[in-house]
Amino acid sequence: MVRLVAAALVMFGMSGCTSDPPPVAAASAERVRPVVASTSSASGPREIVVSGPVTVEEQLDVVALRAGVIVAMQVDVNSEVEKGQAMARLDARQLEADRATSEHKAESVDADLKNWESELQVKEADLRRAEAMHKEGISTQEAYDHSLYEVTASKYEVERQRGDELSAKDSVRSIDLELEKTRIVAPFRGVVSQRYVRQGQYVTVGEKLFRVIGRSSLEVRFTLPATEAQLLRRGDVVTVSATTDFKESTAATVTHLSPVVDPGSGTIEVVAVVKDRLRGLIPGTMASIRIAGTR
């Protein structure tokens, strides 16, 4: 019995010495193996897509410079206009009557001036005769002094009439300026994009009448984070589209980069001039701008 127990102990010890090591060590070695990150996406060109409004340099709201009733409308929305072309007209009948009165007064003052200038010439001739007669002892000192006084008074009257003439002419010019304000004209060559008033309406000074958009190039204005400012320089070209998918696009040249960063948003403003006009790319709309990060 004792021999059987001893044999069993010997066999158990032999089997423990020949068993495989536990798999825990292998698993630990697998966990510390280093992992290499992929850089394929970083090797491609980086692009930024932003949006911004489409504007045009020549864009202006034409306002009334004088209060009055609109009696004529020569243009409407989509009308093409030339610089100085009449677009509307205010009632100017009272001004025209005032001008006629001022013009008649100016003519009357001018006639009075010519009369006094002629009178002065006569008085100066009388003074010369009185002076000659006084030297010859024919006339008295009082007669000479009287002639001198007449010349002096006539000169003052001529100067007064000349002042009245200038005032009368200035009054006519002032009314002419007011008459010009009754003619609403185009500030530059372009197209009427909006009409704010109608014929027969009473307008006040400063009230909007029309919006005129010029024929100058379109611009896009957008902002970039200050950290991306190095992506663009003046003269660089960006891609502009009226849609976000860029199915139809055109080039735009950067003409302005703000030299300072807006402290509120941390961005800089960029302006680019659009090369070609696209369908849907009109002032007031939002455009998509694609910037290729080449720097």
TrEMBL record:
Coiled coil region boundaries: 106-133
GO CC annotations, alphabetized: efflux pump complex
InterPro entries membership: Beta-barrel_RND_2, MdtA-like_BSH, RND_pump_MFP
Signal sequence range: 1-19
Keyword terms of this UniProt record: Coiled coil, Signal
One function term, GO molecular function aspect: efflux transmembrane transporter activity
Protein name as it appears in the record: Efflux RND transporter periplasmic adaptor subunit
Species: Tunturiibacter gelidiferens
